[in-house]
Amino acid sequence: MRPYAIVLMLFVSLVALLWCTPDVQNDLVEIKAPTQAELVKRGEYLVTVGVCDDCHSPKVFGPNGPEVDSTRRLSGHPREEPVPKITDPGMVKPGQWVLFGPMFTATAGEWGVSFSANLTPDDTGIGNWDYKQFEKAIREGKSKGMDGTRPLLPPMPWFNFAQMSDEDLQAIFAYLKSLPPVNNAVPNPIPPTKMFSE
Hints:
alpha+beta; three-stranded antiparallel β-sheet; heme binding
């Protein structure tokens, strides 16, 4: 076979190969960052399915039992709400009961009494927090999202939420920052040594 015939066959084979190979650039999908509105909507969904209202929203009692008070949604345990007395200290000893207050925003157990935090963008809530503080609170269980603070107390399942993707955590933060601010300075936790005193 003549050399030009070999070159011609190689050239035709190369052209056929290139012609039949799909254009990779046409298969690429452009991934866009979500808009702020999309981020907030995703955050609202995650807050809803994550049942944040169960502990962080004061309740009113309706025909079907406790319902979220929409005027104080996600504002934490109301400061003015009295803490029910625990009449039998044995009930909250290790291995015994965990007790919830009537609004489900206060919880008593062997750690003492904890109060759900204000998650609204008021200064008494997360109003002056940046995303890094929120991330530290959720990922490391740090109160106020700051080093050197106490751990988040039960029943906050921060160790489960710590597994969320960065995108989901950012969406939740965006949603919480979009809420109407509610002024409510949640009480400090009551240590176990003081939860039975008058």
